Amino acid sequence: MKTIFNHRSIRQYKSTPIEQALLDKILEAGTRASTTGNMQLYSVVVTRDEKAKESLAPFHFNQPMVKQAPVLLTICADLNRFNSWCEFRNADAGYDNFLWILNSVVDASLFAQNLCLAAESEGLGICYLGTALYNAPEISKALNLPKGVIPVTAITVGYPDQNPPLTDRLPLFAVVHDEQYVANSEERINELYAEKEAMESSAKFVTENGKENLAQVFTDVRYKKADNLHFSAKLLGFLKEQGFEF
Amino acid sequence: MKTIFNHRSIRQYKSTPIEQALLDKILEAGTRASTTGNMQLYSVVVTRDEKAKESLAPFHFNQPMVKQAPVLLTICADLNRFNSWCEFRNADAGYDNFLWILNSVVDASLFAQNLCLAAESEGLGICYLGTALYNAPEISKALNLPKGVIPVTAITVGYPDQNPPLTDRLPLFAVVHDEQYVANSEERINELYAEKEAMESSAKFVTENGKENLAQVFTDVRYKKADNLHFSAKLLGFLKEQGFEF
Fold it and tell me: Which of A123, A177, A215, B244 pairs as cysteine with B91 (C-beta 3.0–4.6 A)?
């Protein structure tokens, strides 16, 4: 519980390497997470090699922690291993569809979060890189991912060389609905986002980017519609190349 | 770490209710998980009402723990709240596409796994129900989920009334690849699945179902191709109804 409430994303790491035994323990902790039908529909590619990190960095938009962290983990949804098992056992697998993309993405995410908490409980710091989905084809090629495998997220791991403040969150009732989903009326939205919008850092983002409000910083600067559509189409194309039909 | 390595899915619960303060703490622990751009693209609907649990049970194929557990949590990927915020702030949201389905499914999964570990660290037991994706339209209707919201998984929570053994996992090297993904040759697959196939319980499943091997129990009994295709198409249709375009 303490580990959970202490989490902050770490973007600066010491050069101290991570011992293999510790890394194995953390990855094994990942595998203790629940998984669809105990099928373990995930894999992780461990990148420690400096040159490999350098070649992956552009696919994560050159975020500096990719090269700086001693370990980069690429977390993959993986139907290849299960499909291969079926193939070699003369069993007729039917997992190359949309339902199983989502099942395996959930599996991979639970594995990832378990290993992150295990890492943090051992004094390591982590940062998720959502960029894995943006450049899935390039990452897939670099890591030799076969059909049925999708890089879902990447995680940098290392000993923290910073201690950033806790990140703000919406009030709990923004995400918790009792018995029925409460519609997001304008009044409710104003209430849920009041604190976030009033933060000094938010005002700074708005001013720096010449926008009217914080929401526009997201839609016009951070995650723009044109970019979203581009990367979404790219991701869909990649999934079809990876053998999924839908 | 101890909590992680102690995890087993709990399918029998005591009738002891969960205090509201404890449940809130667990849900708050969920919100400390990493989230895409701190957008918190998830929601949870809490079901305690007996009649509500009864009406949801068939959508989880009447697994008995749905009615027996004091609390059922339906974990949702949620773009509605963020989109509503954008709408009321005159910001042009572009999140109704495939990329953001996956971003929000990952967000929802990290939230879910955090709250599960928090629950377990407080002596509660949990069980994930993958059935939420199978009957997403029905669950969505029952819980009044608006556009942009997808039930991703459900979790039963309560005080354990059983202590099942740890579930087997593949050897660690099945899921961990060093620098490059190792192709799943027949030799490798034989090695990875040897222990699982040799288990007494596996032999029992094979015999009981009149199959040649364990893989066929998965493909012909547990997760059949025809069912997968049916539920996959149903899920895709639902996502389009929920306003996603791809």
Answer: A215
Residue whose tokens read 């939420």: B132
Q: How far apart are CA A101 and CA A150, in angstroms?
A: 9
Residues A147 and A244: their CA atoms lie apart, in Å, by: 9
A221 touches chain B (CB under 8 A): no
| Closest partner CB to B103 (pick from A130, A215, A246) | A130
Q: With contacts defined as CB-CB under 8 Å, which chain A residues touch B229? A: 94, 97
CB A104 within 8 A of CB A79: yes
pTM for the model stands at: 0.98
Distance CA B164, CA B175 (A): 25
Q: Which residues contact B227 (CB under 8 A, 6 or more apart)?
A: none
pLDDT, one tens digit per residue, over B123-147 is: 999 999 999 999 999 999 999 999 9
- Domains parsed from chain A with CATH numbers: 2-163 (3.40.109.10), 172-222 (no CATH)
Contact A242, A234 (CB under 8 A): no
Give B-chain residues touching A183 at CB under 8 angstroms. 144, 146
**From B6, which residue of chain A is nearest by alpha-carbon distance?**
A32
Q: What is the ipTM of this complex?
A: 0.98
Alpha-carbon distance of A94 to A30, in angstroms, equals: 26
Q: A140, B181 in Cβ contact below 8 A? A: no
CA nearest neighbour of B211 among B168, B219, B199, B194: B219
Sheet holding B149-158, edge to edge: A176-178, B42-47, B71-78, B149-158, B125-129
Strands A71-78 and A125-129: unpaired
**CB contact (8 A) between residue A105 and residue B103:** no
